[in-house]
Amino acid sequence: MTGLFERIVLPVVTEEDAETTCDAALDRVADADGRVVAVHVVEKGGGIPDKASVEQREERADEIFSVVTDRCDAAGVPVETKLTYGTDIADAIFDVADDVDATAIVFSPRHGSRWIQLLTGDVAHSLVTKSDRPIVVLPDTEAN
Questions:
Q1: Residue 120: exposed, middle, or buried by beta-carbon count in 10 A (0-12, 13-18, 19+)?
Q2: What is the CA radius of gyration of the chain?
Q3: What span, in angstroms and rounded, lies between the C-alpha atoms of 98 and 56?
Q4: pLDDT score for 4
Q5: How far is Cα 44 from Cα 142, in angstroms, rounded to an integer?
Q6: What is the pTM of this model?
Q7: Which of 115, 114, 93, 120 is nearest to 104 (CA)?
Q8: C-alpha separations of 5 from 12, 36, 87, 102, 105 in Å
Q9: What whole-number distance in Å separates Cα of residue 80 and Cα of residue 19?
C-alpha cells in the first residue's frame, strides 16, 4: 500500500508560506521516505493584463523554490519543483498532482480574513472539496 506522504504535492505561494508549509510537512515526509513536488502557480488573468511580467513571476518562483529546496535538502527529502500557469489555481494544482501521480496534496492554510477569501476565491476550499486524492491540511507549527 502506498503511504500518504510518499509523493506529495506541496503548493507554495510566498517564501513565508514555503517556510511554514515545509516546517509542518517535512518531518512527516522524511518519516515516510517520501518526496516532495513543490508547485507554484502563476495566476493568469484570463484576458486581462497580468500584474507582473513573466520574467518577474519566474524570478519570484525561483526565490520561493529556493526556500523549499533548502529545507528539503536539510531534511534529506528529495524535491522537485514545478512552475505552472493557470486561471484557476486549484485546477492547476490538481493537474500537477495528476502529472506526478501524487499520493496527497499537502498544505498549511494561508492567513487572511474570511472576507478576503470570499472575495478572491478560497483556493483551500476548492482543494478540499474538489480533489480526487487525499488532501492533508497541516497546522502552522509557529501558531501552536
A1: exposed
A2: 15
A3: 27
A4: 94
A5: 32
A6: 0.85
A7: 93
A8: 17, 9, 28, 9, 9
A9: 16
